[in-house]
Prior knowledge:
single chain; alpha/beta; Rossmann fold; two-stranded antiparallel ribbon; 7 helices; 7 strands
Amino acid sequence: xxxxxxxxxxxxESFNTALFKAATETARANGHEVRSTDLYAEDFNPVMSPDExxxxxxxxxxxxxxVPHIANLQWAEGLILVYPTWWYSQPAMLKGWIDRxxxxxxxxxxxxxxxxxxxxxxxxxxxxVITTFGSPWWFWTFLMGAPGRKVILRGMRYxxxxxxxxxxxxxHEMDNQTDESRRRYLDRVKARISRIPP
Length: 198
């Protein structure tokens, strides 16, 4: 399978970066075609400019800096996002990537007077998330309603193939984790990536 990994963490020596490296290396070792994007390392600009927003239609060409990101999305059969959950959702860097790259004509068609909005990224048939949390699972899930999960597994999934499969992996209470518990999570991540079919 053609897998696109997108990573969003500013610290290269972070545990999140270790998760990203483990996931991509495991995918390659299992014979998948892999492309990877490290948004912070590549200095991706997450800010949509006024002119970009004014031209945010299917008819207008995208800004040159996001053209390679669009090409990666349109190449991929699977998308795996690796990031820390901050304030119950995606970091601003990743949210900006979604805002700018998941645009009309690329991932969905705009609704018209006669046609509903439709998915356009139907080449993607797998979406996965590998994340970490500062909060306990019950707080994020029951009190906050898992907002970050809904953005991806409901909102973004709508733009992909009708039967897109999903997986969600999260390690909660990061500040209280031991070296051993982090190692076990790394092993779980490798095992889950290894189960992705060709």
